[in-house]
Amino acid sequence: MSLKLDGKKLSLKIEQRLNDYISINKKTAKRAPGLAVIRIGEDPASGVYVNNKEKACSRVGIKSFIFHLKDDAEQKEVEQLIKKLNFDKNIDGMLLQLPIPKKFDEQRLISYINPSKDVDGLNEINIGKLVKNESAMRSCTPAGIINLLRSHNITIEGKKIVVIGRSLLVGKPLSLMLLNLNGTVTMTHSKTLNLNKVCREADILIAAAGKPNLVDSSFVKEGAVIIDVGIHRLKSSDKNQTRLCGDVLLEEVISKVSAYTPVPGGVGPMTVTMLLVNTIFSWQKQFSLSSTLNDLLPKTPR
Ligand code: NAD
């Protein structure tokens, strides 16, 4: 029988540790860790994500500061806000909730975030350090996936790993992190030829294409581990209902794989948890607090 890699369960376990860590160290720091979330416009999914982040912060004792700007805000106004938060002593982490309206220069905004507060790990300094395998803030979804694999004793070193997707948010940083952990990584994308054949080579297959049910059993080697990053809300046969699914046609591949992540309850909860971890690490550095959480970060072997 295949093993379910339960991200929900693991994230609750980690949250308990984070809660304890904050309780113990708050006296020394004289304040709770602080996370600023900048949201622009009315994208409904972003509203849900920001809400979830706010709730997760309050569960572990992080103070969240939500800045919700209107669609008609100016690029300069957002830049000013980021600069102000860079200097705010109560803020350890900051993120720009994506997507933002097209008129904004997203990369320019991200480049304004102080790298030591860039809890999404998307600033070019942090990406550059990832490429160089130096320690830095690591993006949350990839770091969460590595945590999930590690906590189930799934070895990365020496494994053939295929990542579907090359986005800056998931595919690229994830491939680099796995490479830094001595995996043999193939990064694939929408122009990859014979995708299912390439994927069939994988000991660990990670789907982050954003295409519902793309991965069927023709993509999967017997005994592989499969990680589903995709998350889609589809109309079910009863038109008034919706259901969530991932990039993987799980019912078709489940009998073939040795382990899999469910959607929902796999990668998603780990992403939010790593955001909390990154915020607490920034707080820890700021106040030279104990480093008892170090096992939660992707290590950087040489
Ligand atoms: P994206 O659209 O920025 O990138 C998708 C990548 O997949 C691209 O590199 C593209 O080349 C590749 N791709 C697209 N179609 C393909 C195909 N048919 N075959 C092979 N490659 C293909 O998306 P993203 O931001 O990387 O997110 C990917 C998915 O992961 C989305 O469903 C998103 O909602 C989800 N996501 C989930 C979490 C989470 O926490 N669970 C976090 C981030 C993203």
Provide structural commentary.
This protein is an alpha/beta fold and 302 residues long. It has two domains: 29-114, Leucine Dehydrogenase, chain A, domain 1 (Rossmann fold, 3-Layer(aba) Sandwich); 140-268, NAD(P)-binding Rossmann-like Domain (Rossmann fold), CATH 3.40.50. 39% of the residues lie in helices and 16% in strands. It contains ten helices and eleven strands. The longest helix is centred in the first third of the chain and has 23 residues, at 7-29. The model has no long low-confidence stretch (mean pLDDT 96). The structure holds nicotinamide-adenine-dinucleotide. Nicotinamide-adenine-dinucleotide binds next to helix 10.
How many domains? The number is 2
Beta-strand share of residues: 15-25%
Question: What is the count of DSSP helices, taking H or I runs of 4+ residues?
Answer: 10
Based on DSSP secondary structure assignment, what is the total number of beta strands?
11
Give the helix level as a range of percent. Answer: 25-40%
> Hetero groups bound?
nicotinamide-adenine-dinucleotide
Radius of gyration: 19 Å
How far is the first residue's CA from the last residue's CA?
36 Å
Q: Using the coordinates above, name the CATH class of the largest domain.
A: Alpha Beta
The structure class reads alpha/beta
CATH superfamily of the largest domain: NAD(P)-binding Rossmann-like Domain
CATH architecture of the largest domain: 3-Layer(aba) Sandwich
- The backbone outline, from C-alpha atoms, is globular
The strands making up the biggest β-sheet line up spatially as 1-11-8-7-5-6
Order of secondary-structure elements: EHEHEHEHHHEHEHEEEEHEH
| Low-confidence runs of at least 5 consecutive residues | none
Mean pLDDT: 96
Largest sheet features:
6 strands, parallel
